[in-house]
Structure formats: C-alpha cells, structure tokens
Backbone:
C-alpha cells in the first residue's frame, strides 16, 4: 500500500479515474450521436461505460463497488481507441444562409 501523509487525500483523489471517464465518454458520445459521426454500437458502449464510471464513486462509501473502477478503466481505453479510429478525419462545414451579415 502506498504511504500517504493524509489518507483522506488518497481516498478522495485516488479513485478519480472512473468519474472522469464519465465526462470523457459522454463528451464524445453525445455530440457524435447527434451528428451521426460514430456507429451506434460505439455510442451505446460509450454511454454504458459512462454510466459505470459515474457509479464508480460509490466505492468511497461502499467498498464492494470497487470492481467498477477496473471495469471502466480498461474497456474505457479500448473504447477511446475505437472511437478515435471511427471518427471521420474531416467534416463538412455547415453554413446557414440568412444568418450572416447583409452586404
């Protein structure tokens, strides 16, 4: 076990990875789903990982929920790689006529 001068710091900030995976995956999944940039199975798997990541903070209260951290961490890396390869390299710019300044 790692020595920490204030054990509450380790308990508070040591198990952050799962909760931040929630922000990473939802930040990519939601816009990619609306813009249809990713296949549905990658979006669904990402949202499932995001849910498990958000629930991983429960291990601070219930040590039985500790299994959620590796359940999110390792598949999350695989999801991130898959999403990176599946995203298109370029995207057409959307312009709307009538919203620009008149000349």
Residues:
């Amino acid at each position: 076990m790692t020595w920490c001068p204030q054990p509450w710091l380790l308990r508070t900030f040591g198990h952050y990875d799962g909760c931040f995976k929630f922000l990473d995956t939802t930040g990519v999944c939601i816009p990619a789903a609306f813009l249809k940039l990713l296949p549905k199975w990658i979006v669904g798997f990402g949202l499932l990982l995001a849910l498990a990541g958000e629930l991983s903070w429960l291990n601070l209260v219930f040590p039985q929920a500790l299994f959620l951290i590796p359940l999110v961490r390792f598949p999350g890396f695989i999801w991130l790689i898959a999403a990176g390869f599946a995203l298109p390299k370029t995207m057409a710019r959307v312009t709307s006529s009538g919203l620009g300044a008149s000349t």
About this structure: The chain has a mean pLDDT of 75. The CA atoms of residues 74 and 80 lie 10 Å apart.
